[in-house]
């Protein structure tokens, strides 16, 4: 881990005062795995799925509706067009994907927070998209821009969270056509971690790029400073709005996650192998398209797949099918040599209770062993993504520490082998005071900073708090202690000016 | 899965009436994995640990105190004795372990509940050992024999639980020297699943064998009808009471788990590789000893390892170190060709809350991918094993269904590939009504029978129950519906007579 906080530019007296009064921020480096991947599919199964995905692309094809530019690009690349249906000859999509980098750096305004996406790395980013929040008073209500800012602050202060994320919640009190400006401003000024851009309109993607140019200067277009989420409209449909945003980002060399968004049984077959076939076909087509827009544009092979409760039609999370699809999709992405994204702390629970704990941990464990490189929704997700929860944000963020330690693997150095300790203690002794323990105990075991390890009596005397209550207290404490990372005041002013100008340029839209 | 319940012998009218009024009991077969194991250690690391374990056995040795018979067995086998310290020459323990079977059947009184222990199989057994229960009124109190019986009933009714377990909780209202009789009687009469024997005195192990002879007749000594838990007193100490019970069971061809019981940092070094070295040395010595008692005696390589909170000294569960040790110990056991046991739904939480959910799921996931063959504490464990919880029993038992589905792996048959469904639906369609979905939806996705999948409004109108509340309701419903599996009345009577006679033979002891 690297500690400390440091601005990119020298600050004045106010900045120095802030520096002095600010609590020391601990921020872990992104994870680099020293453990193998869990490979649920045999080579034979992988080959079947890969062959089937090529059949889907060639025989069934994918649609790029309302997007003549995309159709023209596909035509020139050699695809067979029938209306807006693109039939991609076997092998073409895979060949086009080869120009996408297998790993790239996303830059943050604090270079110590840069993240490496791909390879053996795992970058953790918070919840994305909920229209509701569950607040500290237990009230479930529409999210506001103030809630959004609170989540940015919590992410900034969370040691194991590497990325500030994107639409942490929908700021429903800001016009639909303007909220991306306020969200970006919050990410850029209230945190120094990397973040995501807007995707709900190509024009909003352009705003994102322009705001990055203010924040990062000339470097903005030379390397990835945003990683944005492009969902595919499964099955097999690429809508013009999302593709328009992808085009903006790819042309500006900004990174995109290209991600089937699948509720299994509704948007894909009710089988793991069938769903994986569709995931692969969709990701191949989308990533190939990104490379048609700009060869070398950085992309991530995404897979957001959940299953459905066939009794009620409700989407479900943390289920065995979701784990199997995650593991399989990871293998398919690695065989393409591409970074892989999947979901993190997913749950259908309506409260941060035991259901939330089980389902979230099921997903986090599968994502770690499944070789995920970019984990969205790593913390704060509740109620199938309808709700962002402050309490669950810090609960999950604490559990992300478990992933860091598991990923480190097993130290078999001489110190790790600890033979001297076993010799020193011998049969019937205890290790608490031995030399090896003295030298190693501080770093030996991961320790939760949230969960309750106290003896029963101490805990009962303290009011017997459950995890949710401990988390609520933690959120309050973090927000009390929050101090914004310093930023060049002229940059902050330029960003605020940009937001004000763009907001004034058009009337509010609420749909 | 196999369903239904069937007694071993024909019943009379009362039995037929019970049969008619009994709810249909669903009982899943033990798991047979169709997925690979997660191998965290490289071959090189495994070889280092194996070589170090041999060094520990030879150079440091293990103690078999107050057990001249054991020392004599070791002497004859070629060990170097110094007092009660047994130094085992390199390779000897491993050689002795070779006579232990790699897989065995544990028989139940309902043959459909027999379990295969070893190989690619996973058998799930409930919590073992807590002195306290947390009851449905939220009161934490000493456990009673009535609580014990309640847990036997819950295990009998839990579809995904394959085994009735052993000391589900300590019946503290029964004398220490007699409670094993009541516990065995409960397992034998209130359930038809396999169970564990007593280990707290060699004489109690003999009682267990004799009660099995009443229940199973001549078959009792010819094959394993009990799997009992022999803990090693880590570090490197084999106490005479536990070894005495092991001797009784091995001689009677009954199975034993031979298990280091380690709170890392106290009973083993504060490092994963050091702890694994000690685990392997202890398991090798214990299993080798079982084979000295009776070559071919069925045994399981156990590893109960948790870590310690170095701030408070409290044991912790569901931590990354515990997962790494579980994964590594599984590899070591497989290289010995022996069945492997580790813990299941472990948590330090004092309530069945989110902490319990996270920590339990962390452990369950590691145990599934780590190749565990016999999972003790798979459901009902709370507060670091001090408490058995009725609510958590059914919460965990529900999550065990997740393991069954994950273990099934991925179906890549033609039906699993679902190409016809993808062709039928095409871009932009939905799969809810297609032929493949119609044919497969009932079995396609695992479905919790406990967790809440309802829409927010429905759930809120129903009082917004959390998981604990849902579980409490489920426990009440199960106990309402419980009907004991039929048993030959003469056998039941003979068992009750045995218990009464043995209880009358000596005064109560309470320590």
From TrEMBL, chains A, B:
Pfam families: MTTB (PF06253)
Record keywords, A-Z: Methyltransferase, Transferase
Gene Ontology MF terms: methyltransferase activity
Record bears the keyword Signal: no
InterPro entries attached to this UniProt entry: MttB-like_sf, MTTB_MeTrfase
UniProt-annotated stretches for the region Disordered: 1-22
Presence of keyword Acetylation: no
Name this polypeptide is given: Methyltransferase
UniProt organism field: Pontivivens ytuae
């Amino acid at each position: 881990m690297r500690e400390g906080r440091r601005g990119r530019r020298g600050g004045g007296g106010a900045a120095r005062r802030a520096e002095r009064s600010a609590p020391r921020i601990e921020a872990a480096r992104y994870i680099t795995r020293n453990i193998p991947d869990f490979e649920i599919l045999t080579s034979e199964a992988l080959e079947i799925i890969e062959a089937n995905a090529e059949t889907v692309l060639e025989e069934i094809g994918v649609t790029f509706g309302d997007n003549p530019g995309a159709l023209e690009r596909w035509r020139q690349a050699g695809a067979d067009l029938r209306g807006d249906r693109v039939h991609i000859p076997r092998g073409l999509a895979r060949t086009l994907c080869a120009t996408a980098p297998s790993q790239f750096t996303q830059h943050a305004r604090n270079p110590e927070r840069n993240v490496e996406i791909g390879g053996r790395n795992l970058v953790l980013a918070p919840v994305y998209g909920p229209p509701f929040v569950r607040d500290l008073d237990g009230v479930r209500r529409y999210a506001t821009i103030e809630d959004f800012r609170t989540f940015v602050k919590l992410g900034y202060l969370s040691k194991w969270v590497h990325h500030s994320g994107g639409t942490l919640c929908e700021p429903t009190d800001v016009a639909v056509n303007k909220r991306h400006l306020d969200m970006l401003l919050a990410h850029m000024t209230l945190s120094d971690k990397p973040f995501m851009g807007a995707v709900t309109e190509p024009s909003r993607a352009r705003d994102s790029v322009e705001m990055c140019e203010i924040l990062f200067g000339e470097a903005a277009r030379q390397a990835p400073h945003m990683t944005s989420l492009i969902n595919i409209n499964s099955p097999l449909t690429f809508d013009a709005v999302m593709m328009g945003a992808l085009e903006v980002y790819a042309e500006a060399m900004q990174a995109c996650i290209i991600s089937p968004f699948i509720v299994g049984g509704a948007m894909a077959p009710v089988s793991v192998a069938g769903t994986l076939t569709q995931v692969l076909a969709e990701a191949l087509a989308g990533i190939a398209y990104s490379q048609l827009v700009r060869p070398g544009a950085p992309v991530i092979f995404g897979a957001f797949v959940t299953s459905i409760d066939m009794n009620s039609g409700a989407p479900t999370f943390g289920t065995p099918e979701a784990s199997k699809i995650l593991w399989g999709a990871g293998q398919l992405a690695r065989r393409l040599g591409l970074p892989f994204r999947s979901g993190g702390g997913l749950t259908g629970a309506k409260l941060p209770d035991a259901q939330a704990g089980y389902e979230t941990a099921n997903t986090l464990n599968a994502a770690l062993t499944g070789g995920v490189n970019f984990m969205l929704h790593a913390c704060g997700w509740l109620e199938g993504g309808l709700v962002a929860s402050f309490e669950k944000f810090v609960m999950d963020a604490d559990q992300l520490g478990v992933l860091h330690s598991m990923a480190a693997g097993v130290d078999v150095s001489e110190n790790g082998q600890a033979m001297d300790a076993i010799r020193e203690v011998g049969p019937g002794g205890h290790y608490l005071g031995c030399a090896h323990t003295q030298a190693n105990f501080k770093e030996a075991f991961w320790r939760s900073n949230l969960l309750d390890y106290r003896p029963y009596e101490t805990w009962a005397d303290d009011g017997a708090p459950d995890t949710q209550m401990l988390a609520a207290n933690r959120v309050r404490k973090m927000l009390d202690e929050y101090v914004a990372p310093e930023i060049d005041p002229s940059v902050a002013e330029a960003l605020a000016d940009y937001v004000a100008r763009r907001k004034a340029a058009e009337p509010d839209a609420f749909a």
